[in-house]
Amino acid sequence: MNVIVCPNCAWENPSNQHLCEHCNCKLVSTPPTNVQQHSSHRSNNLILEPIFCSSCGNKAAKDAPYCPSCGQPLKAQNNFVNDGYSSNGIPLKSRVTAGILALFLGGIGVHKFYCGHIGLGVVYLLFFWTFIPSIIALIEGIIYLTSPNDEVFTRRYCQ
Question: Is residue 49 within 8 Å of 62, Cβ to Cβ?
Fold first, then answer.
């Protein structure tokens, strides 16, 4: 049986399809390949090995930037390396540390200093007596703790 493998989600589609049945992605117009018993598919010297999303566990193509099921960035495509530094040299920050700092010491802006936002930290210090920074920090702490991982947290909220 001839199939076309989706470059986004690695779903096997009939060769007459133009859109993937699983993620509705446009299928690459490569000649169809025969279904093999292996987990990888070879087409024009391109290996499409499926990987599994760490958030939802569904199958996705190795080169897909996002999971087609839940939309989370796939670790195979993020711009961060696993040695604690991002691709541009910024150290990764812990979302749990920032969240706890925001919940307990957020009124004086400690979490902002931790994330590298010195100016906002000073603003929190200047207005801590109004309790407005405490309310904002409580919300920020919840947001930080619900971030999917440290890489996404660092990219969105730190420097």
Answer: yes
Q: Which residue has the higher pLDDT, 139 or 30?
A: 139
Contacts of 30 (CB under 8 A, 6+ apart): 4, 43, 44, 46
CA quadruple 132, 115, 55, 69: dihedral sign: positive
- The domains of the chain are located at 2-61, 95-157
> What tokens does 75 get?
């670790």
Task: Give the integer Cα–Cα distance in Å for 34 and 16.
Answer: 14
Q: How confident is the model at residue 30 (pLDDT cuts 50, 70, 90)?
A: low
